[in-house]
Write a structure and sequence with these properties.
Layout: E1 8-9, E2 17-20, E3 24-29, E4 35-42, E5 48-50, E6 57-60, E7 69-70, E8 75-76
Parallel strand pairs: 1-3, 2-6
Antiparallel strand pairs: 1-8, 2-7, 3-4, 5-6
């Protein structure tokens, strides 16, 4: 199975801001089943973007590894299919 190349972030904690190590990613809102439509966000050359569904502010942080975030539990991993 191919691994997704675009990181997915979630904000179940209701944080105002999440720092991310990617300028292109998916926001899913809260954890499923309370997620919103998974929306692709692209900061381009900007350093921040606001999700149009949940209003989470995502701020690019060059100190983070690509595809990671702070806080780390905002990174969503799709559950393994059993």
């Amino acid at each position: 199975m191919a691994e997704k190349s675009v990181p997915h972030f979630q904000n179940s904690a209701g944080l105002r801001e999440i720092r991310v190590g990617a300028r292109e990613f998916m926001c899913i809102g809260a954890l499923p089943p309370f997620d919103h439509p998974h929306v692709y966000l692209d900061m381009g050359s900007d350093s921040e973007i606001i999700c149009p569904y949940c209003s989470t502010l995502y701020r690019f942080d060059a100190a983070l590894k690509a595809g990671t975030c702070a806080p780390p539990d905002a990174l969503w991993q799709e559950p393994d299919a059993a």
